[in-house]
Amino acid sequence: MYNKGTDASPDWTGTAVAFGGSSGANELRFATSGASSSTASASWPYISRPTSGTSAVTQCWAFTADTTGTQITGYDGGRTNSNVFKWSWDALGTMVSAPQFSAFGDTAHTTPTAGTQPGSPLSLSLINGHSTDTSSTSYIKINAYGQFGTTSSNITAAAVGTTLAATSGTAGSVSPTSGTNWLATWQSAQG
Question: Which of 58, 68, 125, 159 would disulfide-bridge 80, Cβ 3.0–4.6 Å?
Answer without folding.
Answer: 159
